Amino acid sequence: MTTGRIRRAALAAVLATGIAACSAPGGGGEGGNGGSADAVVIGVSSEPDTLSPLLGYGKDGNSKLFDGLLARAADMKLRPALATELPEVSEDGLTYTFTLRKGVKFSDGEPFTAADVVFTYRTVLDEKTNNPSRSELDAIDDVRAEGDHTVVFTLKYPYAPFAARTVLPIVPEHAAGGQDPNTGSFNTEPVGTGPYTLAGWSKGEKVTFRANPDYWGGEPEVAKVTVAIVADDDVRATRLRSGDLDGAVLPPDLAATFAGDGARKTHEAESYDFRAVTLPTGNPVTGDRAVRRALDAAVDRAAMVETILDGAGHPAYGPLPRRDPWFDRSTERPRDLGGAKRILDRAGWKPGKDGIRVKDGRRAAFTLLTPSGDKVRQDHALAYASDAKEAGIAVTVESATWEVIEPRMKDDAVLAGFGSAGDPDFALFTLLHSSLAGDGFNNMARYDNAEVDEALETGRRTRDRDEREDAYDTVQRALKDDPGYTFLTHIDHLYVLADRWDGLTTQVEPHEHGFASGPWWNVEDWRPTS
Amino acid sequence: MRPAALPWGGMARLTGRRLLFAAPVLLVVTFGVFAIAAASPFDPVKAYAGTAALGADQQTLDRLAANLGVEGPFTQRWWHWLTSALGGDLGWSPVMRQPVAQVIGERLVWSALLCAVAFAAAVVAGTVLGLLAARRPGSMTDRAVTSLSYVLEAAPVFWIALLALWLFALEWGALPAGGLTDTGSDAVTLAGTLRHLALPAGVLALSQLPWFALYVRQGVGDALAEDPVRGARARGLAERTVLLGHALRSGLLPVLTLIGSRVPELITGALLVETVFSWPGIAAATVRAATSVDFPLLAALTTLATAAVLVGNLLADLLYGLFDPRVNLDDM
């Protein structure tokens, strides 16, 4: 044996271990779909915790496997789904009557009736059901069937946005009844009336849907939908580029790399998803109204949209985005650094030796916590700190996990993100009402403003559109006068998708997005490009 | 060199002793898992509720805690888990939302496949490399193998995994980046599985390979200087026979012990590799169970891993006893 032969053998051995079984090189791209329009593979960052609506799946609609009594159109308006029309509401606003669609069948062939609706709502409301969103249906006093095709809800108190909650998916009593809703087989073998049925769910890897040929709304043309769960943004972008995925949700910088791609289109969805700094009422600095107002005036929202979001977003002046019909345009305000300084001067916060303001021996300084790993939030936090510094307020940015942040939310500011679509009540009440101060992640800043509380109550009790509008204008203006949160931006959600279908739209999306939102919110209605 | 008959009695006695010893070990390990999980900052209720926890009020979270049975001291939960596990009921996993037995059943086969392929590759390739290096100490081959081994030994396995992912999946597009099947297809085919197995198994093998290469190199190198080899050479036997028949045979003895002691590292390595390559094995489930404080799943998986380590050690000792006649199994 010569040294050369040994060396060659060694090399061969190394290669053999490294690329053992690499028998089909170049096959990486074959995975997707072959470019046909009747199947789509999309990549999202996280999977649903459950596919059972009884445990919270699809409560905001677009659940693919199920339908609610109502659904939302592209413009977010409510439209009938399993109900034949929008509900009849009694004069006192306490009784909602739904007439149900006839002839609808679950994917196992059994008919859909009012009993299924009653079963679904009663199970969700049951104390023993592990549904973390149960409180959203708190207003319901009773739900009962009148015959096979009428359902009547009775509320404990008038709750104006109640109809918007009835997008909750309906599950069949015959399949989900008679078992523990938390652990029963329905969780892994869901049956619904929806446009798709579940073909497979490999946890942490992908969920596969197959078109329901008997769907009451017509069989979807996209026969197979695969949702791959790829947590890492870069990996998702790469798999999209390699053709393994047809579409994916991407952060702005990665979406920009697909800008010149003729075969793929970028879809921008506006959202309710705001980034804001919580200013805890209990902290003597952030609880001071002058400091809050100065911070609000000092931040450069437009610059954040441009530099952090690459233009894919909008300045946020409150929890509601500008596109929302309830947004109060009078609360739009430009940056006013001079004004911020004047407010602080007048309130007695005088610049100290290091340029940081001091009042009664207390420095205008606080800590801003930002969840680690979220680059967009971290960038917001750093920009916020630098804007605040110009006004003479020292903000120390600290990155931490939620486990660390949670016990400190009472005293330290947090770069928070939230936003619910559907009704102003959904986002505003839990964010601002003093009764929910520090309750879980609700009202993280422990905002406490009697005027706001009252307007929030009015907004959810009355069904009169003008009265509601007044109430939510009051909230938004009060929030401008006493900004217990510094709202920074509403971020657009970006999706890149192969250009093989026509008429794609996006909804205005809530904070949570990926699986039920994006251009595939209505994949059942897609038509192949002719 | 091989004993005429296998020492069945000694092997059985050793196995029995180890089994007796395993019971308290497993008991302590599961108790430790419950204690550590209870002390961790992760909240099982928040993990269960997922993103919905962000909007949930305290009353809802308290109700979930009560329903999930995660209230009360961990010792009580441990006892409850232990008694039902001994009765054959491994419990229900809140994070995977499946019975624990089903989670393990679905995933164990893929983890076993990954570990077995990687381990076999590591042993074979490591032995070959070690032999080549030992043949001429100080030669180019020796120096290459030795330094490569030290580099691989020092490199964290997740780092090698990311590097391989970048090179093979991103730069060359030669192999899929993760998963068990192509994203768009559901069928598990032999060719498809092999292609998807190549990277994770290769990386895992690479991380274990240096230990075997270095041990074989040392063992064979020592053996080459010993009398039997010198005698064989003096008798004019072919170099190949000397190397494979004499030096390798006695040089392999320490490697047998190594096989047993590498099992724990193989399991932790698989944990990281499976996570990087989205391999649907039990390791990926372990990570989720740990970060979600999923007591039943975590305890079952830890028991499984502990058992694997104990069995690995037992196997190594049995083999050692078989191959080295000087060892008395009853002394172990």
UniProtKB/TrEMBL annotation, chain A:
Keywords: Signal, Transport. Residues 1-23 form the signal peptide. InterPro entries: Peptide/Ni-bd (IPR030678), SBP_5 (IPR039424), SBP_5_dom (IPR000914). Transmembrane segments: none annotated. Residues 77-435 form the Solute-binding protein family domain. PROSITE patterns: PROKAR_LIPOPROTEIN. It comes from the Bacteria. It holds the Pfam family SBP_bac_5. SUPFAM superfamilies: Periplasmic binding protein-like II. Belongs to the bacterial solute-binding protein 5 family. This is ABC transporter substrate-binding protein.
